[in-house]
Specification:
Chain lengths: ~160, ~110
Amino acid sequence: MPVVDVSFSALPAHVRTARLVALAVARRAGVDDDLLDEVRLAVGEACSRAVGVNGDRAPQAAVRMTLSDEQAKFTVEVVDVGPLEAGVGEPDLELLNPEQLSAPADAGDVMPDLPPGFGLAVISGLVEEFNVSSESDGTHVRMSWPVTGGVTGSEPS
Amino acid sequence: MDLSLSTRTEGDRTVVTVGGEIDVYTAPKLREQLIDLVSSGNYHLVVDMENVDFLDSTGLGVLVGGLKRVRAHEGSLRLVCTQERILKIFRITGLTKVFPIHASVDEALAATD
C-alpha cells in the first residue's frame, strides 16, 4: 500500500504543487489516462478550498494531502483545520442557478463571485466516489478513482 | 506554469488572450485585468482560452464575476474554447448556459445576439 503524504503551508501558490504530486502518484498507481484531468481538477478544488479554510482560521496550520493506493483504488484525502461550512456537507450542483450566479452586478470585490461550497460541488459533479466529513481535527475531503493498470509496487527491472 | 495575459482591441470589443493555468493562485491576476477593463469602459469582452491548460472553480468565479460586471453595463463576455478538458467544468456547473462559447476568436468577434 504505497502512501504519499504531503503537508504544505496554506498558500495558494502551493496548490499547483499539490496537483502535480497527485497527478504523478495517480499515474504511477495506474489510474486510467482518461481520468487524470479529473484527478488534477478535483485535487485542485479540494486543496484550494483547504488553503482558504486554513488561511482564514489558522494560517500557520499546514494542509495535509494523503495519496494512497489500495484495493484497486487510488484515494486522495485532503484535510484542513476548519469545521465544514453549513450547507456544503452534501454539495449539489443541481442547486446552483447559473442565471442567478451571473446576474448583473457592479459590486466591488467584497462579494465573492461564487458561493462557498462551489468547489466541493464541482468535485461532486466530477468524482463518483467522493465524501466529505467533519472530524475532530478538521474537515476531510476524500475522493477515489479506480485503478486499472499501472506499475504499483514493482519497480521496472 | 504561470498565467499569461494580453489584451487587444478589435473594433468595439476587447480580446483578452489567456494562457497557462487559472487557479487559486493566478486567478486574482485575471480578475484584476477584467475589472480594469470594465472600469475603463470596455464592456464587450472576448476571453480567448485556447492556450489555457487548467481552469478550476476559482477561475470560473473570476469569469462569472467579469460577466456580472459587463452585464451591469449591458455588455458581453464571450469565451473562445474548444478544449474538452476546459469545457467540461463549464458543462458540469451549467455555466455553458450563461457564457456564449465560441470555437474561434473570429467567430466570437462576428457574433451579435
